[in-house]
């Protein structure tokens, strides 16, 4: 599962222990990978997040905290990859989308 939190912090539990660290807000999160995207990168991905929200029943927004459940990851990746094909002539989008693809 991946979290998008406060417009730009992606939190990716690396294993079950990481999920527990995140879910229970433990003092340390050594089993969680963090990646920050800036506002411009977020804006590039916003159309993907909107489609994820509509299709997967999520609520990813600028200041929302949301989880991409493991069972929806495959469908999320399919949406992302389709968007990448549709926008293949937009290098800025593709570069940012690759970041999201890696953490999914």
The helix content is 40-55%
Give the beta-strand count. Answer: 4
Can you tell me the overall shape? Answer: globular
Number of helices: 4
Low-confidence stretches: none
The main β sheet shows up as: 4 strands, antiparallel
**In what range is the share of β-strand residues?**
15-25%
Strand order of the largest sheet: 3-2-1-4
Rg result:
13 Å
Tally of discrete structural domains: 1
Mean pLDDT: 85
Q: Give the N-terminus to C-terminus distance in angstroms.
A: 8 Å
Topology pattern, helix = H, strand = E: EEHEHEHH
Q: State the secondary-structure class.
A: alpha+beta
Task: Put the structure in a nutshell.
This protein has one domain (2-103).
Write the layout of secondary structure elements.
Elements: E1 2-5, E2 9-13, H1 16-23, E3 32-36, H2 39-56, E4 66-68, H3 73-86, H4 91-103
Antiparallel strand pairs: 1-2, 1-4, 2-3
Helix pairs in contact: 2-3, 2-4, 3-4
Polypeptide structure, described:
This protein has one domain. Helix 2 packs across helix 3 and helix 3 (73-86) runs antiparallel to helix 4 (91-103). It has helices at 16-23, 39-56, 73-86, 91-103; strands spanning 2-5, 9-13, 32-36, 66-68. The radius of gyration is 13 Å and the shape is globular. The protein has a 4-stranded antiparallel sheet with strand order 3-2-1-4. By secondary structure, it is α+β, with helices and mostly antiparallel strands. A hairpin with a 3-residue loop joins strand 1 (2-5) and strand 2 (9-13).
Q: Any key phrases for this structure?
A:
single chain; alpha+beta; 51% helix; 4-stranded antiparallel sheet; 104 residues
């Amino acid at each position: 599962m991946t979290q998008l939190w406060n417009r730009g912090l992606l939190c990716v539990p690396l294993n079950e222990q990481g999920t527990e660290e995140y879910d229970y807000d433990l003092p340390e999160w050594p089993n969680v990978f963090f990646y920050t995207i800036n506002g411009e990168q977020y804006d590039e991905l916003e159309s993907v997040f909107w489609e994820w929200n509509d299709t997967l029943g999520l609520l990813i927004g600028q200041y929302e905290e949301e989880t991409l459940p493991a069972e929806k990851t495959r469908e999320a990746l399919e949406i992302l990859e389709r968007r990448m094909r549709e926008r293949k002539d937009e290098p800025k989008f593709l570069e940012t989308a690759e970041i999201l693809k890696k953490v999914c």
